[in-house]
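Name: Polyphosphate kinase 2 (PPK2 family)
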Amino acid sequence: MLETATEFSIKDEDQLTMELIEAQYTLKDSRDRKNGKSLVILVSGIELAGKGEAVKQLREWVDARYLTVKADAPYLFRTQQAFWQPYARYIPAEGQILLIFGNWYSDLLLSATHVSQPMDEGMFDHYVQSMRAYEQDLKNNHCDVIKVWFDLSWKSLQKRLDAMDPSQQQWQKLHGLDWRNKKHYDSLQKLRQRFTDDWYVVDCEDETVRNQQFAQHVLHALKQLPRHKSTVRSKWQQAERPEQLIQPATEVFDKKEYKAELKKLTKKVAKALTTDNRNIVISFEGMDAAGKGGAIKRIVKHLDPRQYQIHTIAAPEKYELRRPYLWRFWNKLDNHGGISIFDRTWYGRVLVERIEGYANPVEWQRAYDEINRFEKNLSDNQTLLIKFWLAISPEEQALRFKSRQETPHKRFKITEEDWRNRKRWDDYLDAAADMLQRTDSSYAPWHVIATDDKYTARIEILRAILKQLKAA
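Structure predicted for Polyphosphate kinase 2 (PPK2 family):
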């Protein structure tokens, strides 16, 4: 465990205040710079150890306007929600500080000690590993995380309970434990020792030491503003382009047969989607004009508009760029058995952002593993991911672009940038090849629909959705 961030000694309060505020404003001013970051402070610990008092004191020592505190009662883990989902929307932007009282570790402790749903050690440790991986992804995306456990001995805890007004003791519960019960106390200590080796553990016997240590841990984190990494040491191993991306099929689906099959499949897909109790995420990537919009239109044909959301993803806004790149997708996910359809997705990081240089090599090369972890978290929590890459030939794309230009109600779909992107065709093929190789998994497989015939593509997409719904 991390006992101290630096050599600890009690500081003059005025000096400590000055250093904290100075570091706070330096962090605030780092926004949009090469060393910009945000800070998340996770707080947990033994009841009556003084967490609230330490946070209250910290707020008096810093500029309270720029310290956000989120305090909630712990949640029991839900089967349709990843552990990070209740907190994702609150992840701060560069220059901001968030302190979380009730956090994913509080939820883990509550879920592990819940009498009706006991958690075995293997599952507990799996959650800890997933949480650390999530925190590392936050750090890699310039959102630093520090974790502070406020500890108190059993003897001191009992003395503090004795000194309390009896009418207040009923409120002194954390994770539903009875703090008069030594067995409960020992059980919690054993559990927390399974994850606090990378936490700052503050001994809370002395109030002054407690408050100063906590504040100095925060100060140390505020001062750490290293420049973002932008170069990689190893040479990138480019994946081989799949043949179907190079030469999409050209066979044409008979129009009469297409209409009959489409009518049947759209009804089957609607029924299968609406009777499935899982969260469903259907995502589309592919070359411009490959048919994403047309496919989505057929998927939702017989769905009630209240049953699904379509997210059309464009370039990120500035406030989104100041947060981890997955942040804007975390906040678009349904976790109540709904259907989410994405026209463009989080894969933009390893496609357009890679090709156009919006993400540096460190960022896009790291993103494959970040995406895989993100999708595994969703899959582990009853979310079915159905992913499509739509491929057409450059000749077919040119024909569709021209058609759009000549059709009044479709002109908005074509821009000068679309024509310019055709010059990067080979770059997109390379990026797609890497993406397919590195993010195709048993829990989130890719469906490659490679055809110049839009009727064939739509039928194959609907069939693939039905097949994956049944298989899963």
